[in-house]
Write a structure and sequence with these properties.
single chain; alpha/beta; Rossmann fold; 3 domains; 7-stranded mixed sheet; 3-stranded mixed sheet; 10 strands; 27% helix; elongated
Length: 362
């Protein structure tokens, strides 16, 4: 519906910049007018990946001087915190300060008067309080005078194998604007297509973790192993044992060659004094074999390799891939923060599909 031109983009509740990344991936010429997020770790990630200066970053949506940006923004993006309406939260709705941030965003729209705005949230906003909450929110959006359209879209319908349903609401300043939400596409990929070739050993679960996760999958918890379509990513999924896990099978080896728990503990803990003080398994280059076969594997100084069942978490990079972020997106924070940021983000591919419709990109 719109031709190509330099798009002046501004975002609130910016997170790690899903809409910015979508513009980048589509090669749409744009500039960032301002961005805003209250989380300092998010700011680290944002500044590591996008062209922005301190004077264009706001810590809080209430700090943004809307009047100053009137007529200077073409596209305004906002996805306020969703916990107030999520089915996995306490669902306090508009009685929660986070829920009320929707109105702060609407107030900003009225002041800035962008050509287009987009609002994203969980689909639970539609049904909260038997639909009364959304009826109020919708009236507030309509009070802006914009043409309002909205729809729930699932990322698995737009190229990403993740079952993530979200509400997308758009407003067009031009009341005659013609816009149709993108049609679902055939899913050509599975989760395995987004996995790294080799994951760091720190992401693998210990024996207790393996038992715990496998037990939860058998009792209909929100856990799956080697699923073709990922469960909806959550900010805390890697810390309370739900979400997606990867199981890898090693090649079979006769049981007699496996170490007992006691010997395994000794091997990994000590080694021979004054010789190999830091025992390691799965060495790429084997240590020299001892002279006599009778002395092999007695003192924890020889070659040990791990086989059999291995289950691991998704890595932060894999989580980002399953949110539509390409590998040139820099991870500038700890794993803990990276997991949270991926889970709180928006699927880039869905945004790309919407932008293609807005800007007539084929």
């Amino acid at each position: 519906m719109m031709g190509k031109h330099m798009v002046r983009l501004a975002t609130t509740f910016s997170g790690i910049g899903a809409i910015e990344h979508a513009f980048d991936r589509l090669n749409i010429d744009h500039e960032i007018v301002f961005a805003c997020d209250i989380n300092e770790f998010v700011k680290q990630s944002y500044f590591a990946n996008y062209d922005i200066s301190e004077d264009r970053w706001y810590h809080d949506i209430y700090d943004i001087p809307g009047e100053m940006y009137e007529g200077k923004v073409d596209f305004l993006m906002g996805g306020s915190p969703c916990q107030s309406f999520s089915s996995v939260g306490k669902r306090k709705g508009l009685n929660d300060d986070r829920g009320n941030l929707i109105f702060a965003y609407i107030d900003l729209i009225k002041k800035i008067k962008p050509e287009i705005f987009m609002f994203e949230n969980v689909k639970g906003l539609l049904t909260h309080d038997n639909g009364k909450t959304f009826a109020l929110v919708r009236r507030e959006f309509e009070s802006t005078g914009y043409k309002i359209v909205y729809k729930v879209l699932n990322s698995k319908d737009y190229g990403i194998p993740q079952n993530r349903e979200r509400l997308y609401l758009l407003g067009f300043k031009d009341k005659n604007a013609q816009f149709d939400f993108p049609k679902p596409m055939e899913l050509k990929y599975k989760v395995k297509d987004f996995l790294e070739d080799k994951a760091d050993p720190k992401y693998y679960l210990g024996e207790k973790g393996i038992h715990f996760v496998k037990n939860r999958t058998q009792h209909n918890y929100k856990v799956q192993i080697n699923g073709d379509i990922a469960l909806c990513q959550k900010a805390n999924q890697q810390f309370n044992w739900h979400g997606d896990f990867v199981q890898e099978e090693g090649r079979p080896v006769d049981e007699k060659y496996f170490l007992s728990d006691a010997v395994k503990s000794y091997v990994l803990k000590s080694g021979t004094k004054g010789f190999y003080s830091k025992p390691q398994t799965d060495l790429e280059v084997a240590r020299p074999l001892l002279c006599t076969m009778g002395s092999m594997h007695r003192a924890g100084v020889d070659n040990y390799y791990t086989y059999g069942e291995r289950i691991r978490k998704l890595t932060p990079r894999e989580c980002l891939r399953l949110m539509g972020f390409s590998d040139d997106f820099k991870i500038a924070v700890s794993d803990t923060q990276a997991y949270k940021q991926a889970g709180n983000s928006i699927v880039v591919n869905v945004l790309m599909a919407i932008l293609r419709e807005i800007y007539n990109l084929r």
